[in-house]
Structure to design on (907 residues):
């Protein structure tokens, strides 16, 4: 055993250290408060001009003298893309989590989990790059064009000429991006279910699937919902991949008229239009206003998710979440 | 008491559904395996395409030259972008790591109270902020105030993104150090700052480094906040109050150009970026495998 | 062998109770409900059960005793094909229930698991289910749709474990709202609901207080009139109280097997003698 000889230490430095630590802690709180403050003041122009109709209007006219902005299409766009991403991503994630927790042989668990988590490590810009040059063509040729040909006239959400840069493609890529988040938390939650529960089910002669339904699901349900909501929060805040794939529609045209129509989300309109907005302009205030709405929505969703997940994981011993 | 005869009677009500139950079980197993395959295919495709399309772009010029005229046959390279990313990572760490570590120390050593709960909660909230919003914030605070796009604004934004990650991982790493160390220090009359810096931080070293590496991997790939802060540039870094370039931003700009040379360079940039990010993440895993007591669990995330 | 005075009184009492059924059985060909042949079981490369043969008489209680790590629990779990669920587990041998080898059908053990019920050390009722649903869980799996039959079975099983009177007024209460001893009895009822012929019990009372333990032991003594019970226990007095036959295992081998009275009063093997005298544990 190694012995370390230490000086007792100066009490002055101790005080200074504690002060420093406290400052760091408050820095976190201060930054958040500042962000909220700056978003509100930076967008004050647009609230003054449009008021609540900024949330409901769908004009988007940056032309001087006739400026009018409404964020509604982008709010809808964010929810639609995130919603579709959830529809695709949540079942896939639960399946992956189920595999890793219940079915995978021991030697496969860690490497496979790691590979799935690598999906989360890929920067969004690269998802976007891959999306526009590779994935988009596959989606267009294998899914969008056939669906459009078959059902385009009858089903409204398959209508419109599919070019591949639209709500659907953006949503599918978004789904891929949130799978690691949802599946890894779900996996941890499922693994945390005590084995004694599974044994009780097996004893009754249950198959692996029946055991999962009887013993694992009731225990994990709320945690998995929390994981899904966390994924939703990520999907809402996601910018680059969506910006590159969604087709950049503005104004009323940005309302989703079909899966294959170009759209816009709150984050993508900011990214797309920022270069054109000059300092102090109403346009910029409108973009900051969209940012404020995005912040409120994303943080609200994430707070709900955190509460759900931390409550579930606290009640299971030993599962540590970073 | 249920007799043997009664049991036989009751068993007659059991349906002979074993084979259908087993078929359902098998089908579910196949579906679940399919889910895993569906998730892995995109990853494989991304890695494959990045390598396939990016390797042709690589050359000495690619790494060292500034971009040439758009669309010309002298495309130059992405030197400024690589330089910019490295500078940004370095400067952001200088700001974000100390504050983050101190914050983590706060939560772990002084945070078992109401205030600690609040800070922890808001730290987690900050961790999930859409990074484009943080970019807007940095724009308002720094760019508008000083009147120019600059590395300072970029550093400010990225340090905010780094901060909650490092705070969280530092807290987790410190929590793994046994209480006995703290108690021994206290019993010997050693001041807390010595105990924390000389004993706890060194014990938790690998956890701390892991957290920093993950945070660096995260901000290295962030694009959105850079749009509002460093703006992008075709030249190497010139001054602290001038716009500059960075890898993710350069990749984005290149992807918008209609020229094949630009596209190839974009893939090349993506290759460089993904190598940096993935080697950091894989490096973290290796540090984990070597650590004896397993450590806390970490999640890897990337920029938006 | 030196026996505590109190214990010898208990042993005397057991003699009178257990002597009668044994006398009955010896007048006819002994009926073995369950026969384990050449069971070799391992997990993680460690051989836990080294070629054990045992025969379990019907309508009797057989106890498995032995020090920790002797393989008694692993062996028990081989009887209803639960052991193969452990990571890297391997089992060889045959287990014959009424002559039919449970290991003959290879993969799909579920067919056989429902013929044998099992109770575990710590009570593990399904936390999100009511008392009724806990007991009926196995019935639903097996496709029982008739509500009357289900009610009958639930009532019958809860009566057998002496829970019926305590819970009959509110079967919809969550299973977890019961006390520890009640939860364990609930788990026994759940195991009995699938109408097994054999009941396996892995230290069923070790997590319970003495009063709850006593209730369970009384219940076992009643149940054996119609069931074949195999109980793993580290409590030797308990083995003496409830079992008719005892098998002593040590380091994966079956060292001695016989009538409980003989094992505890007159062990033939030196290691058995040392164990039942409490010289090691």
């Amino acid at each position: 055993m190694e012995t370390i000889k230490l000086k007792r230490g100066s009490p002055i430095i101790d005080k200074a250290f504690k002060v420093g630590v406290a400052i760091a802690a408050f820095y976190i709180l201060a930054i958040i408060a500042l962000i909220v403050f700056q978003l509100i003041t930076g967008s004050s122009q647009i609230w003054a001009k449009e008021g609540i109709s900024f949330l409901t209007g769908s004009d988007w006219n940056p032309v001087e003298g006739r400026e009018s902005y409404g964020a509604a299409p982008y709010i809808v766009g964010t929810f639609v893309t995130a919603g579709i991403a959830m529809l695709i991503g949540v079942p896939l994630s639960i399946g992956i989590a189920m595999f890793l927790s219940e079915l995978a042989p021991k030697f496969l668990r860690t490497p496979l989990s790691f590979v799935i988590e690598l999906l989360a490590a890929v920067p969004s810009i690269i998802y976007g790059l891959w999306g526009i040059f590779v994935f988009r063509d596959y989606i267009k040729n294998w899914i969008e064009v056939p669906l459009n040909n078959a059902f385009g006239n009858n089903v409204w959400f398959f209508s419109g000429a599919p070019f591949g840069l639209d709500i659907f493609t953006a949503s599918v890529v978004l789904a891929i991006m949130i799978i690691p988040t949802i599946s890894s938390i779900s996996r941890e939650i499922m693994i945390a279910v005590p084995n004694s529960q599974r044994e009780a089910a097996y004893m009754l002669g249950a198959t692996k699937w029946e055991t999962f339904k009887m013993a694992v699901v009731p225990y994990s349900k709320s945690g998995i919902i929390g994981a899904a909501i966390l994924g939703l929060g990520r999907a809402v805040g996601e910018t680059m991949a969506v910006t590159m794939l969604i087709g950049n529609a503005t104004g009323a045209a940005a309302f989703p008229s079909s899966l294959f129509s170009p759209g816009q989300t709150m984050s993508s309109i900011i990214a797309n239009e920022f270069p054109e907005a000059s300092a102090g302009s109403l346009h910029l205030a409108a973009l900051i206003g969209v940012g404020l709405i995005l912040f409120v929505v994303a943080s609200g969703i994430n707070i709900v998710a955190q509460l759900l997940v931390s409550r579930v994981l606290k009640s299971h011993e030993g599962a540590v979440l970073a | 008491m249920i007799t043997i005869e009664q049991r036989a009677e009751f068993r007659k009500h059991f349906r002979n559904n074993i084979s259908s139950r087993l078929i359902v079980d098998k089908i579910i197993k196949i579906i679940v395996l399919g889910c895993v395959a569906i998730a892995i295919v995109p990853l494989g495709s991304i890695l494959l395409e990045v390598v396939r399309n990016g390797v042709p772009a690589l050359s000495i010029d690619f790494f060292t030259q500034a971009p040439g005229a758009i669309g010309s046959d002298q495309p130059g390279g992405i030197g400024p972008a690589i330089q910019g990313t490295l500078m940004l990572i370095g400067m952001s760490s200088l700001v974000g790591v100390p504050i983050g570590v101190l914050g983590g120390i706060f939560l772990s050593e002084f945070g078992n109270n109401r205030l600690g709960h609040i800070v922890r909660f808001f730290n987690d909230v900050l961790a999930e902020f859409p990074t484009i919003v943080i970019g807007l914030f940095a724009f308002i605070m720094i760019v508008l105030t000083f009147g120019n796009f600059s590395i300072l604004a970029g550093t400010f934004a990225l340090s905010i993104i780094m901060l909650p990650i490092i705070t969280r991982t530092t807290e987790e790493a410190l929590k793994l150090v046994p209480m006995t160390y703290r108690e021994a220090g206290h019993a010997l009359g050693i001041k807390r700052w010595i105990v924390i810096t000389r004993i706890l931080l060194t014990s938790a070293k690998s956890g701390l480094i892991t957290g920093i590496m993950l945070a660096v991997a995260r901000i290295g790939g962030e694009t959105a906040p850079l749009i509002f802060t460093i703006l992008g540039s075709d030249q190497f870094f010139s001054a602290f109050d001038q716009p500059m370039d960075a890898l993710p931003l350069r990749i984005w700009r290149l992807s918008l150009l209609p020229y094949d040379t630009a596209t190839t360079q974009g893939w090349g940039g993506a290759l460089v970026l993904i190598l940096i990010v993935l080697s950091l993440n894989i490096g973290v895993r290796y540090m984990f495998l070597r650590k004896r007591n397993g450590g806390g669990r970490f999640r890897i995330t990337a920029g938006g | 062998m030196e026996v505590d005075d109190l214990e010898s009184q208990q042993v005397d009492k057991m003699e009178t109770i257990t002597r009668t059924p044994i006398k009955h059985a010896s007048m006819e060909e002994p009926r073995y409900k369950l026969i384990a042949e050449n069971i070799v079981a391992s997990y993680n490369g460690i051989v836990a059960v080294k070629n054990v043969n045992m025969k379990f008489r019907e309508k009797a209680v057989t106890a498995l005793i032995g020090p920790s790590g002797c393989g008694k629990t692993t062996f028990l779990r081989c009887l209803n094909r639960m052991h193969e669920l452990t990571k890297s587990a391997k089992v060889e041998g045959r287990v014959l229930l009424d002559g039919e080898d449970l290991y003959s059908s290879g993969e799909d053990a579920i067919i056989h698991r429902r013929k044998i019920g099992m109770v575990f050390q710590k009570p593990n009722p399904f936390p999100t289910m009511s008392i009724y649903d806990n007991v009926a869980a196995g019935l639903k799996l097996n496709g029982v749709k008739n509500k009357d039959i289900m009610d009958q079975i639930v009532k019958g099983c809860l009566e057998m474990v002496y829970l019926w009177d305590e819970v009959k007024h509110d079967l919809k209460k969550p299973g977890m709202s019961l006390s520890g001893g009640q939860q364990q009895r609930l788990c026994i009822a759940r195991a009995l609901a699938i109408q097994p012929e054999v009941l396996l019990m892995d230290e069923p009372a070790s997590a319970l207080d003495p009063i709850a333990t006593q209730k369970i032991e009384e219940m076992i003594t009643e149940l054996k009139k119609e069931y074949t019970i195999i109980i793993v226990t580290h409590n030797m007095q308990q083995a003496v109280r409830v079992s008719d036959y005892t098998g002593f295992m040590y380091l994966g081998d079956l060292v001695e097997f016989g009538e409980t009275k003989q094992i505890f009063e007159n062990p033939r093997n030196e290691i058995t003698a040392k164990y039942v005298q409490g010289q090691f544990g």
The CA atoms of residues 157 and 270 of chain A lie 26 Å apart. Confidence is low (pLDDT under 50) at residues 316-322 of chain A. Strands of chain A lie at 60-61, 68-69.
